[in-house]
Amino acid sequence: MSYVAPPRGAPVANAVYDVLNPIPYGCFVATLIFDILYANTAAILWVHAAAWLVTLGLLFAIIPRLVNLVQVWVTGRRVALGADKLDFWLNLVAIVLAIFNAFVHSRDAYAVVPANVWLSAFTVLLLVIAQVVRALAPYRTGRVVP
């Protein structure tokens, strides 16, 4: 049985990051689902719920991104892997797309389709790629202990 070696850095910061990082991901996936439901049904409930979810996801994305910013760019210049930097940039671009998505959701309900679906889909896609890169990084760098 093999396990991944624990990450370096402040244990409290790692714990805060690990606890709060999945919350925006869940909010953005739910936003995508609600946007698809609205595009298919035209029930205004779905677009209002998606607007709240994208806003909530953006609010919860602040703290993990700040922790990631400090760990990758400020304190860990020698320790940060290329995968950590790629994860940071993919998450940052996803958050920028989510901000544009929040602006799209602020329009009238009938004016949001199809931009809301595309922005939500690209946001979720970037977050999925970032999670895969982050999950596979220990295996590529040899930080997996047999």
UniProtKB/TrEMBL annotation:
Alphabetical keyword list: Membrane, Transmembrane, Transmembrane helix
Domain spans labelled DUF2231: 22-130
InterPro entries: DUF2231_TM (IPR019251), UCP029509 (IPR016923)
Highest taxon listed in the record's lineage: Bacteria
UniProt entry tagged with the keyword Cell membrane: no
Transmembrane domains' residue ranges: 43-67, 88-105, 117-137
Record's protein name: DUF2231 domain-containing protein
